[in-house]
Design a protein that fits this description.
Blueprint: H1 17-32, H2 41-60
């Protein structure tokens, strides 16, 4: 399953968070290394999407 099609809904299995969170954080770090002025619109949308996914998982699974 790729990062852009994680099944994040009310039935999300928090047991998968130990795999999903590091993958999302790694991709966020990769995108964040690019100057925000240099990001394409698609990259900016992906960055926002990944931040939303990470927030969802952390809230759903009560992670810090």
């Amino acid at each position: 399953m790729t990062l852009d099609n994680l099944d994040l809904n009310s039935n999300y299995d928090c047991a998968a968070a130990h795999v999903d969170v590091p993958r999302i954080q790694s991709e966020l770090e990769r995108l964040s290394a690019v100057s925000s002025a240099s990001l394409t619109e698609e990259q900016q949308q992906l960055l926002n999407h990944l931040n939303n996914q990470l927030s969802f998982i952390k809230n759903k699974c009560d992670l810090r």
